[in-house]
Amino acid sequence: MNGAPLGRAARGLPASPVRIVHLGLGGFSRAHQVWATAHASDADDWGVAGFTGRSTALAQRLTAQDGLYTLVTRAADGDRLEVVPSLVEARAGGDVDRLVGLVADPEVQVVTLTVTEAGYHRGDGGADLAHPAVAADVEALRAGRVADLATAPGRLAAGLGARARAGVAPLAVVPCDNLPDNAAVVRDAVTALARAAGDTDLLGWLGGVGWVTTMVDRITPATTDEDVADVRRLGGYDDAAPVVTEPFTEWVLAGSFPGKRPAWESTGARFVDDVAPYERRKLWLLNGGHSLLAYVGGARGHATVADAVADPGCRALLEQWWDEAAPGLTGLPEGDVPAYRTALLDRFTNPRIRHLLAQIVADGSQKLPVRILPTLRAARAEGRVPVAAVTVLGAWVAHLRGHGTPVRDAAADRLRDLAGGPLDRAVPAVLGALDPALADDPEVVAAVRAATTDLLP
User: Fold this and answer.
1) What is the DSSP letter of 124?
2) What secondary structure does DSSP assign to 385-448, as a single string?
3) What gap in Å lies between CA 129 and CA 132, rounded to an integer?
4) Between β-strands 237-238 and 110-113, what pairing exists: parallel, antiparallel or unpaired?
5) 4-271 shares its CATH topology with 276-455
6) Which residue range or ranges hold the Mannitol dehydrogenase N-terminal domain (predicted)?
7) Alpha helices in 50-181 (DSSP H)
8) How many whole angstroms separate alpha carbon 5 and alpha carbon 231?
9) Beta bridge partners of residue 49, listed in sequence order
10) What is d(CA 93, CA 21) in angstroms, rounded to the nearest whole number?
11) CA-CA distance, 35 to 33, in Å (whole number)?
12) What are the residue ranges spanned by the domains of the chain?
């Protein structure tokens, strides 16, 4: 039986004025930035207009609900449902005219982004100008054809350019994607497009923009039909676009806001001078731990993070990995790393968050260099071979050889070729694809080969 649909009038939830524009509207942004804005002490002053990537369906579903959606916080002991009111406008990413108009609006003070690392089209000089979509955006910017813009940096450049030419004061750009120094990434991409398009007005104005670096952390699995049914059953209403997330959330920000911003610190966000120590802590302990569980746990037949961490062998190796990585985590408050490890175990063992290993294994060729290799290099500089780090690499080699979860990597075909054949040849070939220095280190090669052998059937 269907329940009542979501709507602002029925729930007495008036829309706040649009003062934040978000690019990349999806599950994570709604579990994180939009939710945090709803919980700020001045939430009534801050409405969010969100633009999807390519999808029109999500925007249509949310628009039919006046932007309202349910956040299902899934703890080990049950679900908590909350209707989040801060998203006041949901638009398809292709509605660039509306995006540009909002970014140029003096009332808008903040632009946030979650477009994934690939969405920035990084390259030498800030952007991959040879990429067809980027090249097309450069031409569209030159010609003023904003409706034709397809990339996030191109669309953002158009909005900022319109704001500059309207004589409106700069705002803050707050990327929330999981990559180091994310503010520099978006700044450099926008600058590269503006330079290539010959937009001298924008180039001179960009120096006043507040480029805010962030570290964000909240596990948000993809929403399923079962989740939609759970909201109907538990809440008694229909929601076509709920989001499921975990109880834990963390947001660390560094940078200037030229204008106003929500009081995010009232929701637990931390404003610091340097985000880098927190980025490393997350990349090495959480993301590195995920990679370990995905490749080793997948090789041992597990399907989810909770399944893998319940395996005593995986759990011991995870703890060993954290011991190996911890000495490099400097610049954090006293007691931060032990507390974070304790919180991670609570999160990883939550059986009601089905975080699939098949999702985590994707693009290991891009993830392992930032998650695992810094700790490996530090140990080798001290003459040690870190057992957990080389085991992750051995498990990745086994993964590429078809053992465990299916391979999903932008370089999958090349990596499978490298990983094929005798291990004496395959291991240095695969390691060399990550870092040629690893292939030239006989102790590392021998340790990874032994780890691979142990994991293969």
Assistant:
1) G
2) --HHHHHHHHHHHHHHTT-SSPP--TTHHHHHHHH-S-HHHHHHHHHHHH-HHHHT-HHHHHHH
3) 8
4) unpaired
5) no
6) 19-265
7) 57-64, 96-103, 132-143, 152-165
8) 11
9) 21, 89
10) 12
11) 5
12) 4-271, 276-455
Is-contact 152 115, C-beta < 8 A?
yes
316, 293, 451, 295: which is closest to 385 by C-alpha? 451
pLDDT of residue 2: 60
The CA distances from residue 193 to 24, 121, 158, 187, in Å, are: 19, 11, 10, 10
pLDDT (0 to 100) of residue 453: 97
Query: Looking at the predicted structure, is the pLDDT value of residue 1 above 50?
Result: no
Average pLDDT of span 402-410: 91
Measured CA to CA, the distance from residue 86 to residue 20 in angstroms comes to: 10
Position 58 pLDDT exceeds 60: yes
Question: Tokens 């079962």 map to which residue?
Answer: 226
Domain 4-271 architecture: 3-Layer(aba) Sandwich (3.40)
Separation between Cα atoms, residue 80 and residue 71, nearest integer Å: 8
Question: In percent, how much of the chain has pLDDT > 70?
Answer: 100
The identity of residue 355, as a single letter, is H
- Residue 95, judged by CB atoms within 10 A of its CB (0-12, 13-18, 19+), counts as middle
Q: What percent of the chain has pLDDT over 90?
A: 93
- The reported pLDDT for the residue numbered 221 is 86
H or E element: which one contains 4? strand 4-5
Q: Output the six-digit token pair for 279.
A: 């980025």
Pick the CATH number of 276-455 from 2.60.40.10, 3.30.2380.10, 1.10.1040.10, 1.25.40.10: 1.10.1040.10
d(CA 158, CA 73): 36
Question: How many angstroms separate the CA atoms of 21 and 173, rounded?
Answer: 10
Query: Across residues 66-88, what is the average pLDDT?
Result: 96
Q: Average the pLDDT over 177-206 and give the result.
A: 95
pLDDT tens column, 138-173: 999 999 999 999 999 999 999 999 999 999 999 999
Q: Is the pLDDT of residue 3 over 80?
A: no
Helix (H, G, I), strand (E, B) or coil at 89: strand
**Sheet-wide strand order for 87-91:** 87-91, 47-51, 18-23, 110-113, 172-175, 210-211
CA 360 – CA 357 distance, rounded (Å):
5
Q: SS3 of 8, please? A: helix
User: pLDDT-based confidence at 433, cuts 50/70/90?
Assistant: very high
